[in-house]
Amino acid sequence: MSLFLIVALPFLGALLPGLFIRAGRQACYIATVSVTATAFLGLMLHLPAVLRGEVLTARLDWLPALGLNVNLFLDPLGFMFAALILGIGLLIVTYARWYLSRDDNMGEFYTYLLLFQGAMVGIVLSDNILMLLVFWELTSLSSFLLIGFWKHLPDGRQGARMALTVTGGGGLALIGGMLILGQIAGSYDLTTILQNREIIQASPLYVPALLLILLGCFTKSAQFPFHFWLPHAMSAPTPVSAYLHSATMVKAGLFLMARLWPVLSGTEVWVTLVCSVGLITMMLGAFIAFFKDDLKALLAFSTVSHLGLICFLLGTGTTFGAMAAVFHILNHASFKAALFMVAGIVDHGVHTRDMRKLGGLRHAMPITFVLATLAGLSMAGIPLLNGFVSKEMMLEEATYTTLFGNPLLVTVVATLGALFSAAYSFRLIGHTFLGAERHDYPAHPHDPKPGLWLPPALLMVPVVALGLFPFLAEPFVRLVTQAVVGDVAPMPDQYLALWHGLTPALAMSGIAVVGGAIWLALFNLLARVWHAIPRPEAKAMFDATIAGLARGASRVGDGLHDGNFSRYAAIFVVTVVAVGAHAWFTGDFAGASRQMLPVTFVAVVLWGLLIAATASLVALHRNRLMVLIVMGLIGLIVSFGFNYFSAPDLALTQITVEVVTIILLLLALNFLPRTTPVESGSGRRLRDGIIAIAGGVAVTGLVWTILMSDFPMTSISAYQLANSYYGGGGTNVVNVILVDFRGYDTFGEIIVLGIAALVIFALTETLLGGPVRARLLNRKIAAVRAGDPHPMMMVVLTRVTMPVIVVAGIYIFLRGHNEPGGGFVAGLVVSIAVVMQYMASGITWAEKRQRFPYHGIIGAGVLIAGITGMGAFLAGFPFLTSSFGYFRLPPLQEFELATAIGFDLGVFLAVLGAVMLSLESFARLGRRSETEDPDDAMGIDPSRILTDGKG
Amino acid sequence: MEFLVATAIGALTAVGIYLTLRQRTFPVVIGISLLTYAVNVFLFTSGRLLPDAPAVLRDGVDVYADPLPQALVLTAIVISFAMTAVVVIMSLGSFLSNGEDRVDAAADTPPPVRKPSEERS
């Protein structure tokens, strides 16, 4: 099966449970388990090739220039992890089928589980580290959903949040580290990076990259001091704990450390950091686990401890350490997943996981007892079980390792870790199953259905088999170890065996087991001491940190963004000017390298007018009507300017937009106060003035610099000028760019335009539907109004000119491809003609004669543009490719038809509809506020004169 | 000529910023419109100033005004109209709901009793 399919199957399969749950829980289970089983089977088909030593790849380039691809590769390390993820996944899916109660939404649970499964498989098979990061984040997200699956439990929600915060934060660090690593190696492909050990370790960026990557790995794999999230994630349903927190997610960090082992390991920083963090975590986790009364909490801290153990083994940087790590990853996954499931079974049967309320369960739950004993003793490191073999390898490795110049330190800490580990394992078995049978269980204990005990029982097969015959795993473990270490160092000559002779490791093992038993015998005393000593509470510290961060963030946020627009506008301007000034003073603008154009008289006059008009706004801006007049003047001069500098299309557009904008602002001013009161004091005005002048000077300098220096690169317009006529069939290059070269942009823009108009419509509707309406109806018109709302001369004039303007609009539209004009301008011109009818004859009159709603016109425009664009598909061209031809239709002259005209028609309609819908919405606010319009548009309503005149 | 254009854009920007920093919605809208002019003209000038060039392709002419910034600015002008309209309806809605047109009016402020003097103004 293709590697792509193996990764994609769980993601695609995640769609199934939600559908199949309607057919019942069994159907939902079968759908889910088939997905996982298919992926597992597909993976197993590759086993022979992997055993032959082949590395399978699947490559798919996306943006090769940026190093973005979707490459997967399957080597023994990836295979081992993928097999763990999918294999244990099968057991977990089955276990969950019987574990989840009828109140739980099984479809939702399986969906999350499959998402998580896909993300995990993605991590272990990715060749591209950027893609690996994406999958990495996906595991954080999907585990968040899984941990918080019981949404009604506050513990579940808080635990999920904590897990997401810690692993997500580590994920951010990891992104940084991986990007640095990719930069050093010059490639984002793992297979390439792994070849570049020397370059990477010699780079000055090696240490930052290493620290960031390790931060990601340590948070994910719950290493000290980030271990605290894992116990809090135990409020998840037990299948989740068994899956995520024993076999898969927490191993992702270890996987990455193993994956990058050839390039990162072996340096002093690596050995010191990874070894000590691993050792501390191992000992601390084991120590705390012993005192936990909750079965799952004990297992959580035990997991922390075992992860620390593996971390330490990887940290030693020796190939024997790597081999022990690989073997222990396998062993830990098998016994720990089983133990979590056992904890779930006990919880299920007795309705408590508190060991103080348990004990003597061996009679009532014999099957569970056997499973727990096997797995627990394996965890304790008792011979004939697989945990013993790898733990002894760890102890042996510890004797070789020297940290901080002290050869005994590691040995002692490792032995202590093993001792505590044996102690809590014994306690788990002893305090749950041994001892006197009790009669005060919260529920009647019993062995569960096979669906619950079979999955852990299956896991006991490797626990016992590899414990008795470790050499069975040897070829595979060696293969994986080879994949971990690459060609950095020769393979170790040690072999996996039960009996290595009388070694120091055996003595340490003995000390640990006997010491563990004694430690347990002292439990009552130790527990009293433990509970008496105050100790830091991770959750309280975490909550305080988060609360502090949130407070700090909102203080900064509220300071910068206090809801007053002018405040953040000012901050924005000052920041931009400061950054620009920095660029200016540190840049190397050599001065003008181009000649200035000669100044003409007209230009000076227009410039003077513009400056005067603009400056006068500062003085006049309190008189709002005056402001609009000056704005019209400025718009006019800008249009002149466009025309002067050979851009007639822009001039046409600017001047028509100017008309509708002024109408719009006049409509708005109808409701707003006519003047702006003086509010800010002179100090504030001075400050704003300084900011404004600084901004103006900066922009002047920027424009001057751009205009007076040569382009650093050539403009792409040459291409458009050259191809406009022959490729696009038009001589008006601006229009050809709009409808052809950059048609996609234009298509997006008319959609934005339509959305903006709909937003205005929706806001108007909301306003008119709320309390504002009553206020509008009760509004007293203060200003003296014209006695005649619809003067006859204006009515006649607008009606007579309407056809003329529309014809002009059509003309501008049709000639757009070859002469200045086009859909945008034509749409604006025609909308002016229509608006004039509203103004002259009233909204009621105009609405009665309106055939099509403006929403429809916008929609039709977008649709026509889109369909025209898609027409290119018929000819086998990409979207919006236009074609054109010349036709002769007697008695007319030869004329050109281009498909672009269809697109331009869409633009025309969208512009017309959007402008009209906006203006009409404003006008409707006005209509509701006034008394009814007279029926006869041309009629004069004398009553208004009388009432208004008095008012 | 370049100097005139640069200072004109600078003046538009300066007054635009000043009005944007006012406390009432209407000057802010006007300020944003002025900034829109400034930005549009700025974009246009990035294609160089070229008076008296033919508007459309002609035989035998090699020098044209850069059409690309023109196309960009053309749509920008139309879109900025739509955006102005959205800002105006928002400020209008705020004014009609709150009874005042300050830019920092809280959404849940009850409308104050209007004084007759404000009506007239």
Automatic annotation (TrEMBL), chain A:
<feature type="domain" description="Na+/H+ antiporter MnhB subunit-related protein">
    <location>
        <begin position="794"/>
        <end position="916"/>
    </location>
</feature>
<feature type="transmembrane region" description="Helical">
    <location>
        <begin position="625"/>
        <end position="645"/>
    </location>
</feature>
<feature type="region of interest" description="Disordered">
    <location>
        <begin position="930"/>
        <end position="951"/>
    </location>
</feature>
<feature type="transmembrane region" description="Helical">
    <location>
        <begin position="897"/>
        <end position="919"/>
    </location>
</feature>
<dbReference type="Pfam" id="PF04039">
    <property type="entry name" value="MnhB"/>
</dbReference>
<dbReference type="Pfam" id="PF20501">
    <property type="entry name" value="MbhE"/>
</dbReference>
<feature type="transmembrane region" description="Helical">
    <location>
        <begin position="597"/>
        <end position="618"/>
    </location>
</feature>
<dbReference type="GO" id="GO:0006811">
    <property type="term" value="P:monoatomic ion transport"/>
</dbReference>
<feature type="transmembrane region" description="Helical">
    <location>
        <begin position="270"/>
        <end position="291"/>
    </location>
</feature>
<feature type="domain" description="NADH-Ubiquinone oxidoreductase (complex I) chain 5 N-terminal">
    <location>
        <begin position="66"/>
        <end position="110"/>
    </location>
</feature>
<feature type="transmembrane region" description="Helical">
    <location>
        <begin position="820"/>
        <end position="840"/>
    </location>
</feature>
<dbReference type="InterPro" id="IPR050616">
    <property type="entry name" value="CPA3_Na-H_Antiporter_A"/>
</dbReference>
<dbReference type="InterPro" id="IPR007182">
    <property type="entry name" value="MnhB"/>
</dbReference>
<feature type="transmembrane region" description="Helical">
    <location>
        <begin position="109"/>
        <end position="125"/>
    </location>
</feature>
<feature type="transmembrane region" description="Helical">
    <location>
        <begin position="162"/>
        <end position="185"/>
    </location>
</feature>
<feature type="transmembrane region" description="Helical">
    <location>
        <begin position="6"/>
        <end position="23"/>
    </location>
</feature>
<feature type="domain" description="NADH:quinone oxidoreductase/Mrp antiporter transmembrane">
    <location>
        <begin position="126"/>
        <end position="402"/>
    </location>
</feature>
<feature type="transmembrane region" description="Helical">
    <location>
        <begin position="690"/>
        <end position="707"/>
    </location>
</feature>
<keyword id="KW-0472">Membrane</keyword>
<feature type="transmembrane region" description="Helical">
    <location>
        <begin position="30"/>
        <end position="51"/>
    </location>
</feature>
<feature type="transmembrane region" description="Helical">
    <location>
        <begin position="205"/>
        <end position="230"/>
    </location>
</feature>
<dbReference type="GO" id="GO:0005886">
    <property type="term" value="C:plasma membrane"/>
</dbReference>
Automatic annotation (TrEMBL), chain B:
<feature type="transmembrane region" description="Helical">
    <location>
        <begin position="70"/>
        <end position="92"/>
    </location>
</feature>
<feature type="transmembrane region" description="Helical">
    <location>
        <begin position="6"/>
        <end position="21"/>
    </location>
</feature>
<dbReference type="Pfam" id="PF00420">
    <property type="entry name" value="Oxidored_q2"/>
</dbReference>
<feature type="region of interest" description="Disordered">
    <location>
        <begin position="102"/>
        <end position="121"/>
    </location>
</feature>
<keyword id="KW-1133">Transmembrane helix</keyword>
<keyword id="KW-1003">Cell membrane</keyword>
<dbReference type="InterPro" id="IPR050601">
    <property type="entry name" value="CPA3_antiporter_subunitC"/>
</dbReference>
<keyword id="KW-0472">Membrane</keyword>
<comment type="similarity">
    <text>Belongs to the CPA3 antiporters (TC 2.A.63) subunit C family.</text>
</comment>
<protein>
    <submittedName>
        <fullName>Multisubunit potassium/proton antiporter, PhaC subunit</fullName>
    </submittedName>
</protein>
<keyword id="KW-0812">Transmembrane</keyword>
<dbReference type="InterPro" id="IPR039428">
    <property type="entry name" value="NUOK/Mnh_C1-like"/>
</dbReference>
<dbReference type="GO" id="GO:0005886">
    <property type="term" value="C:plasma membrane"/>
</dbReference>
<feature type="transmembrane region" description="Helical">
    <location>
        <begin position="28"/>
        <end position="50"/>
    </location>
</feature>
